[in-house]
Specification:
Strand content: 35-45%
Shape: globular
Helix content: 10-25%
Radius of gyration: 22 Å
Oligomer: single chain
Largest sheet: 7 strands, antiparallel
């Protein structure tokens, strides 16, 4: 084997390694942050009485949701649907273009539609979230979505069932100050936005779990 052949093989190996690294970096990562392996106890007459409980990781709703988001994208999973933030009164309508319209349903039956729309959009390989102006016309917040958390919530299990919460976060935590007790850092300023499915309880009980999809570091 001559020197030119050796150089060519070396270049091909380097190119293959470089391309493999690029592909690995570009792929979203799923992180199973927390999972409680035991099912909550259900009393007779409660929402999940007599229904099976999911405990296998691959059957958990958040695992299935994250896999669907990874395969189909944020647009296919979140756009064209109505969400809330854990409150029945406030609804978030996301159209197929990613624009967010907020509608408040007051206790007296009054419906208020926010004039300013938010948006989730894709630009330069990144997903960006724009928070709509609130009723006081406060400044719009905008941040890159670096992580999507999916969490099951069993707090309303006795009466209403379990629900899914998705949190879009920029993953950036800053030290605001240090504790006066032990000088430990106190973090804050991590931007996030929550979308929930509290109007659609899960059909079967599941163990509590929280899973993160890392879009970018």
């Amino acid at each position: 084997m001559n020197i030119h052949s050796k150089r060519l093989i070396r270049l091909l190996i380097l190119a293959t390694l470089f391309w493999t690294c690029r592909e690995n970096i570009a792929q979203p990562k799923t992180k199973l942050e927390k999972i409680k392996s035991e099912c909550p106890k259900i009393a007779q007459g409660d929402f999940y009485w007599g229904k099976p409980c999911k405990i296998e990781k691959q059957e958990l709703t958040c695992v299935e949701a994250i896999e669907e988001i990874k395969s189909k994208g944020i647009e296919a999973y979140f756009f064209g649907k109505t969400w809330d933030r854990g409150s029945y009164e406030t609804k978030y309508h996301i159209d197929k273009r990613g624009e967010i319209k907020i509608v408040d349903h007051g206790p007296d039956g009054m419906i208020t539609v926010w004039k300013q729309k938010g948006k989730i959009y894709h630009k330069d390989g990144k997903y960006i979230f724009v928070d709509p102006l609130d009723s006081s016309d406060l400044k719009t917040e905008e941040f890159i979505i670096k992580r999507i958390d999916c969490e099951i919530n069993n707090l309303n299990i006795d009466s209403q069932g379990s629900f899914l919460y998705f949190t879009f976060a920029n993953n950036e935590m800053k030290v605001l100050r240090h504790s006066a007790l032990d000088n430990s850092p106190v973090y804050g300023d991590s931007k996030s936005f929550v979308l929930a499915e509290t109007t659609k309880p899960l059909p079967n009980l599941e163990v509590w779990h929280k899973i993160s999809l890392i879009l970018s570091e």
